[in-house]
Design a protein that fits this description.
eight-stranded mixed sheet; alpha/beta; 323 residues; single chain
Length: 323
């Protein structure tokens, strides 16, 4: 991870209250007079990582991070009540007004990229540019690829898929699998619940990198993060991410003028290459960069390096455009 900038302290943090029972953890860092960039984490439910700030030049960017509803340091933790895509989009609009920002860059990977695209479609005037990684378009085919026993991920990582379905059994239908996992992760049997959480997170972790730093991908995992990640992902995927089928591509005209960089690992098994290619074909002001020796995770050195370079290039482009 030598491509990253040095560790960066936050300038300010606060809890931002919604009007429906949630309190969102928000932090800012970098240059308050720099280019505002909102960093949207993945999952849903992953919360902000420790290193996300290091992807940006702190002299050029005013870096904004927010733990989405039920995630990270936001409260109530792992709450599914009033937790839909529409709620998250409302939170993004509220945060921008709270910080008195007219326009910002949207940055996100995986679900964070999905949410960034939907936020731009929801409020295109507020978006200067986007830098996105690991494209998930929230279509039925994307759910199928990730969760079905006949999907691409299961066909490549067959032995890991068998471990994935152990707590709930085999299901022919993706919706039935999501329902079974949802019941397991919301039941009163803590042992069964945690087995489901570990299996769900283990599946995603095992297929997200080309190489793992240790044998068991959950050996050193944060249990707090695993609970919100597994439960929130299941909740959103069970409800088709609370968006209509092919919503992003069907509304891409709203953001076709916004400049964007799309970064995709060649061997991304969580979010298939076709999604990134389809997005780039329908978004004329975007540029697709394929990282040849990487999978899905932003913690892979080649992905991290590509993100740092993309953020540097976007800052230069925006500064030049404003002259």
């Amino acid at each position: 991870m030598t491509a990253l900038f040095p560790p960066l302290s936050i300038n300010h943090s606060e809890m931002l209250n919604t009007d429906d029972g949630h309190s969102l953890y928000v932090e800012t860092s970098g240059n308050p007079n720099g280019i505002p960039v909102l960093c949207l984490h993945g999952g849903p439910g992953a919360g902000m990582s420790d290193d996300y700030r290091r992807l940006f030049n702190p002299h050029l960017y005013f870096i904004i991070g927010m733990d989405q509803r039920g995630s990270g340091r936001s409260t109530p933790f792992a709450s599914l009540e009033n937790n839909t895509t529409a709620h998250l989009l409302a939170d993004i609009r509220m945060l921008r007004k709270h910080l008195n920002i007219e326009q910002w860059v949207l940055f996100g990977g995986s679900w964070g990229a999905t949410l960034a695209l939907l936020a731009a479609i929801d409020d295109p005037v507020s978006v200067k540019a986007m830098v996105l990684r690991g494209i998930f378009l929230a279509r039925e085919q994307d759910r199928y690829w990730f969760l079905s026993k006949e999907g691409g991920a299961a066909q490549i990582f067959t032995e890991h898929y068998q471990k994935f379905i152990e707590p709930v059994g085999e299901h022919d239908d993706v919706q039935a699998l999501c329902e079974a996992y949802y019941q397991a992760m919301t039941c009163n049997d803590e042992v069964h619940k945690m087995a489901a959480v570990r299996a769900w997170c283990g599946w995603e972790e095992r297929i997200s990198r080309l190489q793992h730093p240790h044998g068991d991908p959950l050996e050193h995992d944060n249990v707090h993060r695993a609970i919100s990640l597994a439960l929130m992902e299941c909740h959103y995927l069970k409800h088709h991410c609370f968006v209509s089928e092919n919503a992003i591509i069907n509304h891409i005209d709203k953001i076709k003028h916004i400049p964007g960089t799309i970064i995709q690992g060649r061997y991304d098994i969580v979010c298939k290459m076709e999604a990134a290619h389809t997005l780039s074909e329908h978004w004329p002001n975007s540029r697709l960069l394929i990282v040849p020796d990487a999978g899905h995770s932003a913690s892979e050195p080649s992905i991290a390096e590509a993100l740092v370079k993309a953020n540097e290039a976007m800052a230069a482009f925006l500064q030049e455009s404003s002259i």
